[in-house]
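From the shared-data thread, chain only:
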Amino acid sequence: METDDARSLAEKSGLDLVEVAPEAQPPVCRIMDFGKFRYEKSKKDKEAKKKQHIIKIKEVKVRPNIEEHDYSVKLRKMIGFLDKGYKVKVSMLFRGREITHVEIGKKVLDRVKVDIAKYGNIEVPGKFMGRMLIMIIGPEKN
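Structure, as tokens:
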């Protein structure tokens, strides 16, 4: 149909002429109420946004030479986060000459893996990002 004919037909019916597929040969247009279309689209988008699940990550920072009491406090915090459904990112920062003794940090992360095994699953095992050793733990699926 010619553009002028379609435009006059849309005006007679009190609707809008909306281009649906401009890249098609010839371009495809539709006669519709554009305001109503935008309103329904925004409603659908809002409904889809309600249904999506956002995963939140809580970070717990530890050091390679962490003391026993500090370790137990951090472990309790991690377990609490996992019980609430959060993912936990365990970050171990090496400062100064500590970076030469990476095995000490890995021992601490291995201990965390063993202690946290019944509360969550290891998603990202210990990996280096610069001077930090990072491990991500996800909550256990029921």
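The chain has a mean pLDDT of 90.
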